[in-house]
UniProtKB/TrEMBL annotation:
GO terms for biological process: arabinan catabolic process; xylan catabolic process. InterPro entries: Actin-crosslinking, BXL, Fn3-like, GH, Glyco_hydro_3_C, Glyco_hydro_3_C_sf, Glyco_hydro_3_N, Glyco_hydro_3_N_sf. CDD domains: beta-trefoil_FSCN_BglX-like. Keywords: Hydrolase, Signal. This is Beta-glucosidase. PANTHER family: BETA-D-XYLOSIDASE 5-RELATED, SUGAR HYDROLASE-RELATED. Pfam families: Fn3-like, Glyco_hydro_3, Glyco_hydro_3_C. GO terms for molecular function: alpha-L-arabinofuranosidase activity; xylan 1,4-beta-xylosidase activity. Belongs to the glycosyl hydrolase 3 family. Residues 736-807 form the Fibronectin type III-like domain. It comes from Streptomyces zhaozhouensis. Transmembrane segments: none annotated.
Length: 950
């Protein structure tokens, strides 16, 4: 090899050889510098600067104009892997095209989010595909393969799955520990990550902020297992700021050098911390090297994985990289795809025949989202927009459209003066969330407009007040600009939309005297009237009391508009930057009271009222379901959302979206948002014992389908093939989503009511009949995690296969018998027993056995009592003594074991080290033999790692 072309520049060599050669040419400081998100250039070797991380959840985000597709939960509602694959391809092409124009656009995309939508109050519900692991995995595989491309050598982009693992709440998200038992981890959480990695689309993982079983996810020993799912080197990128949390908010390790060293050893390759400033990360890793916490091999392992990704992205072979040539941005094909995706995301929840709308109808389009196309934190900046009002106004079948948003028109009074918005001298601009900056969180809001003032009644400005619920008000000036507060503290009418990482456009009314204080939610301070105008108060400064005078009642305006039209279409839901988003979980499933009042008023004025819910998450609307003739739901559907909704309402498109998660009827149906144990919490469609408002997989059509003749056969070893006939027996063309479920007929341990094993979306003309074939591996479809033997297994016995239109609408059924030997009892004499491998549990949580690996069990909250049950323990000829390895950090700790009706208790001596396990002997009054169950009770601040029998 010549000096002009070193081996790392030779595309004929393997990636492994090229990486090894390049690593050998880099100094240790240069290799350490590669580990920060913003890796500097190495000019002497011709290496460019490189940044991990480009958000692309449903379009290219934060980097300027791009095609905006439906939110991920909306793509999930399509149940269409082929569609999602095409969306991924389009987004990948736009990443490439936008990078050609702006090198800040990164090719390492942090998408998709595959966390399961286990709990509908999760603030980030909009980011996931579904509550089901198989549906999520299938769509994530399709999206990542589209993003990555199908070239055997090079990647279109390098997708990273978020967020590893069991991440489903925002409250205390960086300090709370999620307790996840082995069955939930293996059967529910991990499959959503495993399939996209095995399929080769995803090339990386991002650990989540939370701890799992007491250990930060950035130190997860399970990362090694995930690496085994990927044929190529798996890239692990930290979440933003998370490396500092290990020794910071989490206090898990004593200092930052130790925290970053532990993360590097656990498998984190790229550290996202301190924005573009790599200095602190490099200094901490360098200190860790000097202290012997890590060595050069640890650095090289991570740097090698980063470089391997860069090689696969074509950075070193620009003449061979095929993807720049196919880059495309805002094409007609992408715009058409955005429309098709938005159409397929619409779910018809209820319809008594009112829909589709009759040609020539007059329509009142009502509600706070009627003339909106809302974006979320991970949206790009759309180059095209269509609200529901736009879509219906432009539709030729609609005769006349009227509009009311339901906002109250108000004036604000402070003492004897009234609030006034000065005349603007500059146009409104987009909110920080869509301003095209590399880091929208850094944008402080506009300061070039004059602040609001107070004056006489004649100068008062009438503001549109929208109540989003939960104490969240937005106020808009007559020209549509929202009241906002920049970092200088002045209140201005300056924002096009609420948005940004810090939402500066929300005010909370707090009763005070005969009026209210207006507390600016972002700063937590009340608004005061100063000599120069309105501003937020300094800490400790009292706020000004405001009185709200209603000039026009939005509810009455909605009722009047509804009464004057043939049909009222009420568009309700959420603003994705308000009341449920990243950092903020929702408090309730119910609609905001102000929105409840709108649909009730519209329906009272016009029984022909359609409720269209446009939201990032489910709502509990049982009364609306009982009263209204038609309900629909769609996620925020991107740039073509309004057109798509209009085409469904008018019948141009027969709706075929299906719910990707359960819609519960009441808040009381939900477990605590921190309870991830689906089995004991009885949550998601898998275990929920109640009656949902709308079940997982639900969705109606304008036509009717039959599903008949289900058969299942093992046509090749280890896999089943299911076939059934689907017929469109209605008078319209439409899509049916065939959902195949399985259930265990007589399970030995708790299994779900049924679980999804395959699905497909089928387009059928009126009268058309088609044979649908579905395939899946038997062990994947029917297996479960056997905690007694620490393995994946398919238990022998009878299984029921069910095909239907939802998880509760089963159309045909057949049985399948799996032969084989039962797993047998637990071999506790030979292998002992891990405390975490329980079959039943009450009052316990899983914690870290040691900082590096393993799980232990403790009473929830570090005290109280916990009970664990282990079935089928084989005690052989007899056991008289149990040795419990336990650690206690306080007095009053004890363990009690009951075997075959024989019980023993022992105290656990208190210590100061939660990892200082000591053997505690429990001597049974008499030996117990044979196969029996074990009940273990823990009391006090104690944790148990394992048990031995003798």
């Amino acid at each position: 090899m010549t000096a002009q072309r070193p081996p790392f520049r030779d595309p004929a060599l393997s990636v492994e050889r090229r990486v090894a050669d390049l690593l050998g040419r880099l100094t240790l400081p240069e290799r350490v510098a590669l580990l920060h998100q913003y890796a500097p250039a190495v000019e002497r070797l011709g290496l460019a600067a490189f940044r991990t991380g480009q958000e692309a959840l449903h379009g290219v985000a934060w980097m300027g104009g791009a095609t905006v597709f439906p939110q991920a939960v909306g793509l999930g509602a399509s149940w269409n892997a082929e569609l999602v694959h095409r969306v991924g391809e389009a987004v990948g092409r736009e990443v490439r095209a936008m990078r050609a124009a702006d090198p800040r656009v990164g090719l390492n995309v942090w998408s998709p989010t595959v966390n399961l939508l286990r709990h509908p109050l999760w603030g980030r519900n909009e980011e996931g595909y579904a509550e089901d692991p198989l549906l999520t995995a299938g769509l994530a595989t399709a999206y990542t393969r589209g993003l990555a491309g199908d070239h055997p050598t090079y990647l279109r982009t390098a997708p990273v799955l978020k967020h590893w693992i069991a991440h489903n709440h925002e409250v205390d998200r960086d300090t709370a520990s999620t307790s996840v038992r082995a069955r939930v981890l293996r059967e529910y959480e991990m499959p959503a990550f495993a399939e996209p990695l095995r399929a080769g689309g995803a090339v990386g993982l991002m650990p989540a902020y939370n701890l799992v079983n007491g250990r930060p996810n950035h130190l997860s020993p399970l990362l090694d297992e995930a690496r085994g799912w990927s044929a190529a080197p798996l890239l692990v990128c930290s979440d933003a700021g998370a490396p500092s949390n290990i020794a910071g908010t989490q206090g898990y390790l004593p200092d930052h050098a130790a925290g970053l060293a532990a993360a590097l050893r656990a498998g984190v390759d790229s550290f996202t911390d301190h924005g573009e400033d790599s200095g602190p990360t490099v200094a901490r890793l360098t200190e860790a090297l000097e202290r012997g916490l890590i060595d050069e091999a640890d650095v090289d392992r991570a740097a090698g994985r980063l470089l391997a990704t860069r090689f696969r992205l074509g950075e070193f072979d620009p003449e061979l990289d095929p993807f720049p040539a196919e880059a495309a941005h805002d094409t007609a094909a992408h715009r058409e795809l955005a429309l098709r995706a938005a159409e397929q995301a619409v779910v018809l929840l209820r319809n008594d025949g009112l829909l589709p709308l009759a040609p020539g109808s007059t329509v009142a389009v009502l509600g706070p989202l009627a003339d909106e196309m809302k974006l979320d934190w991970y949206s790009g900046e759309p180059l095209h927009r269509a609200s529901p009002l736009d879509g219906l106004r432009d539709h030729p079948a609609i005769d006349r459209v009227t509009w009311e948003d339901g906002a109250d028109l108000v004036r604000l009074r402070a003492g004897d003066s009234w609030v006034s918005v000065p005349q603007a001298h500059a146009p409104a601009v987009a909110s920080p969330a869509s301003a095209g900056a590399l880091d929208p969180a850094l944008l402080p809001g506009r300061t070039d407009l004059p602040p609001l003032t107070v004056g006489p009644l004649a100068a008062a400005t009438e503001l549109r007040l929208t109540d989003w619920g939960g104490g969240a008000w937005t106020l808009a000036a007559p020209d549509g600009r929202y009241l906002s507060v920049a970092e200088d503290g002045w209140v201005r009418a300056s924002a096009d939309q609420p948005g940004g990482w810090v939402v500066r456009e929300v005010f909370t009314p707090v009763p005070h005297g005969e009026g209210h204080l207006l507390v600016h939610r972002a700063s937590g301070q009340p608004v005061v009237v100063a000599a120069e105008g309105l501003k937020v108060a300094a800490p400790g400064e009292p706020g000004t009391e405001f009185r709200v005078e209603t000039v026009s009642d939005g509810v009455l305006a909605v009722a009047e508009a509804a009464a004057g039209s043939d049909v009222a279409v009420l568009v309700l839901g959420n603003d994705p930057h308000i009341n449920g988003r990243e950092t903020e979980d929702r408090a309730t499933l119910t609609l905001p009271p102000a929105q409840e009042a709108l649909w009730r008023a519209a329906h009272a004025a016009n029984p022909r009222t359609v409720l269209a819910l446009v939201s990032s998450y489910p709502y509990a609307v049982p009364e609306a379901d009982a009263a209204l003739p038609a309900l629909l739901w769609t996620a925020h559907g991107g740039q073509a959302a309004g057109t798509a909704l209009a085409r469904v309402l008018t019948g141009d498109v027969s709706p075929a979206g299906r719910l990707p998660q359960t819609w519960y009827a009441h808040d009381a149906d939900l477990p605590d948002i921190r309870d991830h144990d689906l089995i004991t919490a009885r949550s998601t469609y898998l275990y929920f014992d109640g009656e949902p408002l709308y079940p997982f997989g639900h969705g109606l059509s304008y036509t009717r389908f039959e599903q008949t003749g289900l058969t299942v056969a093992e046509e090749e070893p280890g896999a089943f093939v299911a076939r059934l006939t689907v017929t469109n027996v209605g008078e319209r063309a439409g899509d049916e989503v065939v959902q195949l479920y399985a259930s265990a007929v007589d399970p030995r341990l708790p299994r779900p009511h049924r679980w999804l094993v395959a699905f497909t979306r089928v387009a059928l003309a009126p009268g058309e009949r088609r044979t649908v074939t579905l395939r899946a591996p038997l062990d994947q479809a029917l297996g479960h995690w056997d905690v007694a033997h620490a393995r994946w297994t398919t238990a022998p016995g009878d299984y029921r296969f069910e095909a239907g239109a939802s998880s509760r609408d089963i159309r045909c059924t057949t049985r399948w018998r799996v032969a084989g030997e039962p797993a047998g009892p637990r071999p506790v004499l030979r292998r002992g027993l891990r405390a975490a491998d329980f079959d039943e549990v009450a009052g316990a949580e899983l914690v870290d056995l040691t900082p590096r690996e393993g799980d232990a069990v403790a009473p929830r909250g570090g005290g109280g009592t916990a009970e664990l049950r282990y079935h089928g323990c084989d005690l052989g000829d007899g056991v008289a003594v149990l040795t419990v390895h336990a650690a206690a950090t306080g007095a009053g700790s004890a363990v009690t074991a009951e075997l075959g009706g024989v019980e023993a208790t022992a105290e656990v001596p208190a210590g100061t080290d939660r990892y200082a396990y000591r053997p505690v002997l429990l001597r049974l009054p008499r030996p117990v033999a044979g196969v029996t169950g074990l009940r273990l009770t823990l009391a006090g601040p104690v944790r148990v790692g394992r048990l031995e029998f003798g």
